[in-house]
Each structure stands twice: as C-alpha cells, then as structure tokens.
Amino acid sequence: MMWLLAQEQAPVPTLGIFSAGSVIDFAIVLGLGVIIWVMVARARTGRKIPEIKKIAGLEAVDEAIGRATEMGRPVVFIPGILSVDNPQTLAAFGMVSHIARQCARYDTRFLALNCDPLPYAVIEEITRQAYLEEGRPDAFNPDDIRFLSAEQFAFTGAVIGIFERERPAANIMIGAFYAEAMMLAETGSFQGMIQIGGTAMTAQLPFFVAACDYSLIGEEIYAASAYLSKEPVMYGTVVAQDWLKIVLALIIVVGAVLATVSPDSTVLRDILGGY
Amino acid sequence: MHITSDPGIWCQAICTLAVYTYLYKDNPIFRIAENVFLGLATTYWFVYSFFNYIKPAIVEWIGTNGQYHYVLAIILGLLIFFRYVPSLSWIARYPMSFWVGYGTGYTLAFTPAVWLNQITASFVALNSLQNILIFVGILCTLVYFFFTLAKENPVVGGIAEVGKWYIMIALGSAFGNTVLYRWNLFLGRANMLITQWLGYTG
Predict the structure, then answer these.
(1) Lowest mean pLDDT among A17-31, A80-94, B37-51, B168-182
(2) Which residues does B144 contact at the CB level (< 8 Å), separation at least 6?
(3) Which of A27, A216, B28, B81 would bridge A220 by S-S if both were Cys, CB 3.0 to 4.6 A apart?
(4) Has residue A16 been placed in a domain?
(5) Distance from CA of A53 to the nearest CA of B (A)
(6) Which tens digit of pLDDT belongs to each residue from A149-202?
C-alpha cells in the first residue's frame, strides 16, 4: 500500500525513464552492479579475491553465542526499529541466518525481538530456514521470534522487560536504532550480557560504543553477511563497494582541488547531476 | 504547593513514577506500566492503521475513486496470513519477497541521492586550517571503511588509523551532546511532576 502511495507522489519522469537529476544515480547503481558482477564472476572461477580486514565486532558474534551456550541462556537479536525499505534492516537480515544457524547447531535458544511487522515476518522465515538447514527443524520455536510493538518506546519497554525476565547471555543489535539505543544497550550492560551493537545512525553509535562490548560502526554492518559467511563469492560484493569508495574518494580530492583553484567552477557538480 | 485534581496530570505522574521505579529494580509496578504501554500502543496502531490505510483504501480509493489497482496491494498483504496455515505457509513468502525486493530496489534507487549531496558538500577550498582538517578527516574516515585494501596495504592501514581517531572524536562529541539532550528530557519530566502535579511554583 505504501509503495503504491509512493508511486502516486513520485515526480514525472523525463525521457519516460528517469526522474529529474536521477541519471547519475542510475549510472552509479549500474556501475556498482557491473563491479559486483565482475568480482562475483572472479570468485566463481576460483581467482583471487582480496580478504576482508578483521572486524572485531563480527569476530565476537560466535564468541557471544558460545558464551550463551555455556551459560544455558538465550541469545537475543534486535534488527533495529525500521522496516524492510531501510538498508540497515537488510544488513540485519544478512546476519540473522548466521546467528540462528549457530544457535541451532549448539542448541542455544534464539530470541528475535521486532518493532516492525515486516522484518518480523522475514526474520521468522530466515530463522526457520536456518534451523532446517542445520537439521534441527524441531528445535525452532516460532514463539521466540516476537513482534512486540510498532511504537518505539512501548517496544523498548517490552525489550527491557524481556531482558529482565528471560535473562539472555548475549544481545546482538544490528540495524537502524534511534533514542531506544541507549536504553537497550544500558540495560543489557547492567545485566552483564555480552553485547554487540551495530548501526549506521551516527547519533546512536556513541551509545553502542560506550555500552556494548563490541560495536560495528556504519559501513561495517553492510560487510557483515559476507564476513560471517566467509564465502569468496560474497566477498566480491564487499570488494566492489571498496572500489566505489575509491572512486568517491578521488572525486572528493578532485572537487576539493577544483574548489581551491577555481572556486566558481561548477563542472564537477554539473557532472554529478547538480547535487 | 497545590496538588492538581486534573486526572490527566495524575495519569502522567503515576505512569512516569511507575516507569522510574525500574531504576531501583524490576518490580510489579514497572511491569504494569510496561504492559499498559504495550497494550495502548498496539491498540493505537491498530486503530491508526485501520482509519488511515485500510478503511480509506477500501471505501474511498477503491469504492469511490475506482482505483482498482489497490486491490492487488490488498491481496498481496492478505497473502501474509497464509503463514498461519502450515500446509500453505509457502504462499506467505511471496509478499515477503516482494517487500524485501522493494526495499532493496528503493535503497539502490534513492540512496545515491543522499550521499551525492554529502560528496559535493565535501568540495571545500583548501585555504584554511578548518577546511584542511575537514578534507583530511573525510578522506581518512572513508579509507577506514576500505575493508579489503587495508589488510594488504600498510599505508592504507595507517590512513585508516587516522580515520579511526576522527570517528572516535566525532562519536565522543555526539555522546556528550545526546547525554545533555537526555538530561533535558529528564528535567522536562521532573518539571511536570513538581509544577503541574504537585503544584509547586516557588
């Protein structure tokens, strides 16, 4: 429904395809797609793909699950509070499968707490599949994948209550968080959980850094699924993103030099679609 | 001091104090507040969704305006309920796939517009210390997020280390800023309790 409403409010496209100023956006997405395709093709044919640097927060995921297993307590996963049209929620989906599989393998209870009904439905399906792939479909409990409330602070209160009563040993929060980030991380820290917090919300990152044992900063959550899977084919997507960042860094350098040498020049801004 | 007789203010005060009891430890009063809030929020969003999406879609958009394409959206939405029928639960995967596909496409289509603005805003003239610090900070921070190059190249790793310092300074500043904001929120609650509820104005 929201999608159809968005369609009605969209600007009239030029040339029948592009909305005004979106040609460069399309070129970037297309370019990124080509680089990803090349890197994935390289990986599939067995050629060398650069490895991803060590990310402590992701290395700690298995450690957190291991600790929960030893203590016989649940692992909690919170995919932020936004819906499936947010890239951070999509990044969270990439991690759920790995965490749920590990929990199924070690017979550790896995709790996923959701604030939005769409990620709730998707995460339940991913988790069910993960348990199936580990050969433990009987261990999957749909009641452990919970939709609590679509209201931000009602959700927060409910999560705090679950932290108190279910006593999880590990709390993994990956996705888009707002003001509830500090409350959740503080409560988890107070309870002595091992916590991993990751978000691209710059205003909330400090709280994860301060209150969590490990934090994933911005872009690191987007590399998570490739990092955890350790599959060269998925590494290809991260390599492609690195290449795009190199291009953007070069554009910034050229833009700064132009702004210094010729302050009135708008050549580069025009090439970038007038942004 | 004159304690108010306004039931709305009393309700606010009791709920505020009930939530603050958690600062001592988890207790039945906090649990009541938690469950009341959860129930109210669920009801609110159900009513909100019904009167803002479901009813207008059926009565106004389809019934009055004849915009029958909304029927497709309604059918797609209803398919999700097949997850409660074990033998047909696979059907519920179609709307989920649609949502994830839509989310991915939306992100790809509209995200460049956001960061292209940030890129062009980074075109600063390198004629002052402030601008040079900004320029160096942007580049080093960007390099920090090179995941595959830093492992192989020590120079890139060194630049990324500078980027890490920039990030930590920025996060420290944001932390202080937000803590002060949260303190203001607490003062707002305390002000409500003291002036509106207890009626103390001295």
Answers:
(1) A17-31
(2) B150, B160, B163, B164, B167
(3) A216
(4) no
(5) 5
(6) 999 999 999 999 999 999 999 999 999 999 999 999 999 999 999 999 999 998
The whole-angstrom distance between B164's CA and the closest CA on chain A is 10
With an 8 Å Cβ cutoff, is B102 touching chain A? yes
- Contact of A255 with B120, CB cutoff 8 Å: yes
CA distance A228 to chain B (A): 14
d(CA A191, CA A167): 8
Each residue's pLDDT tens digit, A68-113: 999 999 999 999 999 988 989 999 998 999 999 999 999 999 999 9
Q: Does B20 touch chain A (CB under 8 A)?
A: no
In a domain, A151, yes or no: yes
On chain A, the residues whose CB falls within 8 A of the CB of B53 are 1
ipTM: 0.86
Residue in A52, A259, A273 closest to B147 by CB: A52
Distance CA A227, CA A10 (A): 37
Q: Count how many domains chain A has.
A: 2
What is the residue type of B40? L
For residue A146, the enclosing domain spans 56-222
Q: What is the value of pTM for the model shown?
A: 0.88
Same domain, A61 and A190: yes
Same domain flag for A86 and A191: yes
